[in-house]
Amino acid sequence: MLRIHDARTGQAEPVPSGPLRIRVHGPAPRTHVVGDLLRRVAGRTRREVRLYCAGSSAPERDLDELNVRPPDLGAGASAELHVAEHGGEPPPAGAFLGVRPATGPGTVPDGLDPLSVRLAMLRVPYRDPLDLGGTVLPDADAELRRLRGLVAGWARSPGRPMHRAYADEATAALFDDLDVRGALAVLDRLAADPEVPDGAKLETFIHLDLLLALDLVRDIGR
Predict the structure, then answer these.
(1) Where is this region: Disordered (predicted)?
(2) How many CB atoms lie within 10 A of CB 185?
(3) Which of 86, 175, 188, 195 makes the best surface tag, with the fewest CB within 10 Å?
(4) Any bridge partners for residue 20, and if so which?
């Protein structure tokens, strides 16, 4: 069951079952990145999920480079779940996921992959403050390159089905209040497990990257 921390109640709450409408408020890029992750994770339950943006919620930057899917067309005034900056005025109805804004550079430093920003934004819990300054983005870029290098290496091995137990554990972390840090820790354990064939590691990473949207397959064949 997908659970999120509802800023309205101050507790972890299950996301309502059935068709889900998500409404993202405000221009902060981290809010849109978290909303995108939420849409992807909720969609894993095979429910209908639609995401809308509030009328004044044009993002501060181009979100294509952060692999944020475009919002669905329509006003989406009614929603079961709202994603907005922490501390703002809560919506009149529906669950409220409060995201701390990210501070720091407004552009990606030269030489760094833009998706390092997405990784940096996601691996810190959305309710925690995030400063993208200092070594945060270079460290995220290095981690992204490391993961892509692993995937590219495994792609040269014979194909195998994904490892269901590791995949389920990582997905369960994401279902627990979008715990990306926990999901990445599961993938690190999988990468280091000598008992799992490289082909199974590859398929499991690809399966989870459909949710994380970090383009982990980018370096295959390079």
Answers:
(1) 1-20
(2) 15
(3) 195
(4) 49
